[in-house]
Amino acid sequence: MAATTDTDHEEHTAAPGSAPPDRPRRRGRIAAAVSVLGELLITAGLVLGLFVVYSLWWTNVVADRHADRRGDEVRDTWAQDPPGRAGPGALNTKDGIGFLHVPALSKGEILVEKGTSMKVLNDGVAGYYTDPVKAELPMTGKKGNFSLAAHRDGHGAKFHRIDKLKKGDPIVFETKDTWYVYKVYGILPETSKYNVEVLGDIPEESGRKKPGHYITLTTCTPVYTSRYRYIVWGELVRTEKVDAERTPPKEIR
């Protein structure tokens, strides 16, 4: 009889306790599935990241370029006529009626156009309300509420820092012929998007009970959402005529 070796013994004794032949294949399939799932999650993360970059950065770049170009067109139109003359740039509701200057928001200027639709606001401008209430433009001289809206995030994000505004801060609106200087007197950090009373000719929710020359800034809140609205109210304190050099009021120098 042939002699048995240690190897023969180990193979003979290990056979009864060995795993079923299909278990390694099953483990391989699970590992492959986990690998595919991981790759899908990584891809989804990259897509989401690119979307965030597009929404919060690239739309700002595009909107700012568009707003700057439109703003230059408005100023070029104004330059065709000296201040004080009712030329074609005196009130152009199509291309922009003027510029908002709010030091607490930005050192730059914000072009103001007609309407508050996404089509208007996505161009990186502020828009004055025509619906559900009608803003009273300061150039008319009538008492009322010059109510405006702008994006807080993306598409220029002109009102991104609206929460930095405090009572007493200046809000200056520049037209072809006149500087309108307002002072913030009321702030409502959160209200329903359906609360149109804040836009009324007399914004009673701000504490005012009599007609006056008011300005209202509105935008979405909290940041990166559109669930509620953030409201800032201001009241006209004086006007200044635009001189030949367009010297700005002391509040924004």
TrEMBL record:
Extent of Basic and acidic residues compositional bias: 1-13, 69-78
Origin: domain of life: Bacteria
SUPFAM superfamilies: Sortase
Gene Ontology MF terms in the entry: hydrolase activity
Region (Disordered): 1-26, 69-92
Keyword annotations: Hydrolase, Membrane, Transmembrane, Transmembrane helix
Record bears the keyword Nucleotide-binding: no
Protein name: Class E sortase
Organism whose genome encodes this protein: Streptomyces fumanus
